[in-house]
Structures are given as C-alpha cells and as structure tokens.
Write a sequence for this structure.
C-alpha cells in the first residue's frame, strides 16, 4: 500500500488489516494516524464543552385585550364629550303658564359612536340618547 | 366561524406557538451556540449568530417541518456563513501574529487534550467554510454523513470528501504548531 492511499483510509477512519500492516512498517503514516485519532478525540470533547447560555431576545407582539382597549376608548370619548352647562337657579323668575299643546313627539336618533379596537373583528358601537 | 371564534383560534395558535418556540429554544440552545462557536471561532459572534437563528425560528415557526433539529442545524450553518463572509475582511486586517512553533518541545510528547482542543479550534478557522461546516457537524456534533449531507444540501460523497480534506488539514495544522 502506498502512503497516499493509507492517508486516505486514515482520514476516512477506515483502519482495515491492510492499513494496520502498512502502519507497522511506515513511521510517517503511523504519526499521522496518531495525530488524526488525537484530533478526533479533541473534536469530540468539544461537543461537551460548557458554553454560556444565549440570552434570546425575541421581539414579541404585545397582546392587548380588546375589551380593555374598548373600555379605554370609551373612557377617552366620555372625557371629550361636551358637557351640559349647569342649570341656573330659579330665583326671581316668573312662571308663565301656557296651554298645553299636543304635539307628536319627534323621533330623535341617538348619537352613535363607533369605536375601532386593535382587533379588526371587534367594533364597538356606543349609543347615547339625546 | 364567528369573529369571536376566529379571534379565539388565533389566540390559541399564538399561545401554542409561543410554547413551542420556548421549548425549542430550551432544547437546542446549547447545540446552536456550540455549532456557531465552532464555525465562527469567537463566542461573541456565536452569540449574535444564535440570536439570529432563534429570531428566524420565531418567524418561521409554522414552516420548520417535522425535524426542527435539522432545520436549526441548517439555519445555523447559513447564518454563520453569512457572518463569516461579513467578518472575513475585518479578520484579515486584524490578524494577530501566530505564535511560532517551539522547536525545543519534545516531538514525541503528546499534546495535552486542552492544548489540542485549542489548536484544533484555531485550525478550524483556517479551513474553507464548507469543509469547516462539514467537519463541525460530522466530528463535533457526531452526525452521520447522510445527516450532514441533508443539512448542507450536498451529496454524501461531497461530505466525505470535505471531511476527509478537513481532517488532514487539521492534522497538518496541529502538527505544524507542536
């Protein structure tokens, strides 16, 4: 067997009887064989080497409960609505009595507020009587 | 299916995926970091690469298939290849002088395992990227030739050739440093 062939077998880890016979006769291939075996052991031992943990930082999507978002939106709208001015006290006012008129009550549509939530499937309607 | 059902399904899927993701990170964190470290040679770079690998895992959780370990190996190798390419120029500029071989050292003396590990680790960085990936997966990770071929997307004969070449180069490198 030629040294080149032996080198191939050694690097592939195939140590047959013919290779062993060549190793007994060839000090160079024997040295290479020892080197490869020692490297293989060193590489394998790297598998068990302790390494620090990875601090995995994944930007997670924040989940906002739709009902919490809706409640917050309602509160914000309530703060922005115009408030009725306080009624003045009836001091020194004159009471005028007028004959009652029968009128048909006007149908007034309630104020409708549409609120969108982060979830496109959830829409909140808020109806306010005038 | 109502909107509520849909929302519930989406929420359950997210929760399930979240659990799977954390489980996968816990199970494979060490492996990803170890491979990245051996491929890149620097712990800081390996940690960056591992971070990138897990970010890709998070984004592709629905598409990783039945074998997450093989997927993680493949992505780790790809991320490290990208990292290595970006860093190569900087490394060449910043190459520190290598210690000269000590001729007074007894050539017959076997290197201590720790010293050999250091030299092998150093030698890995001298290998071409494909050979380095093949030998790291085959000899450090202990995967079969077929598994390595599947991960790297090459034929088994190519893996055998790369591993063979890498082992000989490593042996010569270590011998030159003794």
């Amino acid at each position: 067997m030629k040294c080149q062939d032996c080198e191939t077998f050694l690097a592939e880890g195939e140590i047959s009887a013919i290779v062993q016979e060549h190793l007994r006769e060839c000090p160079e291939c024997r040295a290479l064989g020892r080197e490869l075996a020692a490297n293989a052991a060193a590489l394998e031992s790297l598998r068990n080497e302790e390494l620090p943990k990875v601090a995995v930082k994944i930007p997670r999507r924040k989940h906002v409960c739709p009902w919490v978002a809706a409640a917050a939106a309602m509160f914000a709208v309530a703060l922005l609505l115009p408030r009725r001015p306080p009624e003045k006290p009836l001091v020194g006012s004159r009471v005028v009595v007028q004959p009652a008129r029968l009128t048909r009550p006007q149908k007034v549509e309630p104020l409708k507020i549409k609120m969108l939530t982060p979830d496109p499937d959830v829409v909140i309607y808020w109806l306010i009587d005038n | 299916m109502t909107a509520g059902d849909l929302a519930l399904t989406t929420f359950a899927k997210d929760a399930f995926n979240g659990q799977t993701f954390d489980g996968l990170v816990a199970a494979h964190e060490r492996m990803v970091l170890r491979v990245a470290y051996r491929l890149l040679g620097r712990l800081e770079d390996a940690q960056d690469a591992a971070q990138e690998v897990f970010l890709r895992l998070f984004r592709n959780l629905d598409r990783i298939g039945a074998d997450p370990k093989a997927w993680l190996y493949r992505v780790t190798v790809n991320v490290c290849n990208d990292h290595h390419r970006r860093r190569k120029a900087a490394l060449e500029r910043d190459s520190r002088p290598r210690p000269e071989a000590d001729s007074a050292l007894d050539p017959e003396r076997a290197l201590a395992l720790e010293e050999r590990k250091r030299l092998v680790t150093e030698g890995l960085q001298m290998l071409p990227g494909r050979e380095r990936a093949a030998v790291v997966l085959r000899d450090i990770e202990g995967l079969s030739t077929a598994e390595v071929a599947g991960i790297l997307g090459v034929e088994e004969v190519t893996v055998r050739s790369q591993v063979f070449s890498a082992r000989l180069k490593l042996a010569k490198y270590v011998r030159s440093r003794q």
Observations:
- The beta strands of chain A are 111-116, 123-128.
- Chain A touches chain B at residues 7-8, 11-12, 31-32, 35-36, 38-47, 49, 51-58, 60-61, 63, 66, 119, 121-122 (CB under 8 Å).
- The radius of gyration of chain A is 45 Å.
- Residues 27-46 of chain A form the longest helix (20 residues).
